[in-house]
Amino acid sequence: MKKLIREVSNNMVQITTVDERWYARPVKIPETGLPSYEFVPSVTWIT
After folding, report:
1. What is the mean pLDDT of the chain?
2. Which residues lie below 8 Å from residue 16, measured CB to CB, with a gap of 6+?
């Protein structure tokens, strides 16, 4: 499966597969202070 991962802005990454697109941004977990990523699905359709 082909995946395209590209940086959209300073802290936003776009992940595109054949039929899905997701956005990820770095966040810190408040309880532990450890870095993680928050993933959000795109609201547009890939045809």
Report:
1. 91
2. 3, 4, 5, 6, 22, 46
At position 20, the amino acid (one-letter code) is E
Question: pTM above the 0.85 mark?
Answer: no
The rounded distance, in Å, linking the Cα atoms of 9 and 32 is 26
Domain map of the chain by residue range? 4-41
Residue with tokens 């300073």: 10
* Residue of 1, 2, 3 whose CA lies nearest to 22: 3
Paired strand residues for 44? none
